């Protein structure tokens, strides 16, 4: 199916980009250092490395979207409706009308007691609220960082 081929091509580009971030970047950095000096090599790596990381992130997002699209056409999944979205509550629902609390102010609502005794929502903590990245992505980035730090420490020696 052509849609799955699109996902496969993006995946291939992701693999190529990851390889550029690790092996190719080290080899190219070494070659530039040998030919033009360590300052030029560091400037090159400092410019290209963030660009490759950004490219990889864009590929990740694109691949997730394409995978979701493939899931829709293969019947493996589909768009989920969010609560409160269109179609959840009819337009003429009387429960959505303003409540008269006796104060005479139009649209004033009666105070609502917390029947569950819940505490105030948390303001955040140590954990990151978004999804965790796949292990292979983190592993690839860690490997790239380790290899680039080793190359930097070898240059200083």
TrEMBL record:
Residues 89-103 have a biased composition (Acidic residues). Residues 128-141 have a biased composition (Basic and acidic residues). This is Uncharacterized protein. Residues 73-157 are annotated as: Disordered. It comes from marine metagenome.
């Amino acid at each position: 199916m052509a849609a799955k081929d699109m996902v496969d091509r993006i995946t291939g580009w992701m693999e190529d980009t990851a390889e550029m971030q690790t092996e190719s970047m080290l080899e190219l950095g070494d070659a530039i250092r040998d030919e033009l000096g360590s300052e030029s090599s560091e400037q090159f790596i400092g410019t290209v490395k963030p660009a490759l990381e950004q490219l990889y992130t864009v590929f990740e997002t694109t691949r997730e979207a394409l995978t979701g699209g493939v899931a829709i056409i293969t019947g493996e999944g589909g768009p989920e409706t969010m609560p409160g979205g269109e179609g959840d509550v009819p337009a003429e629902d009387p429960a959505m009308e303003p409540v008269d609390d006796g104060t005479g102010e139009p649209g004033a609502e009666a105070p609502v007691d917390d029947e569950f005794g819940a505490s105030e929502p948390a303001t955040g903590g140590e954990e990151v609220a978004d999804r965790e990245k796949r292990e292979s992505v983190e592993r690839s980035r860690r490997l790239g960082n380790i290899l680039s730090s080793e190359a930097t420490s070898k240059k200083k020696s």
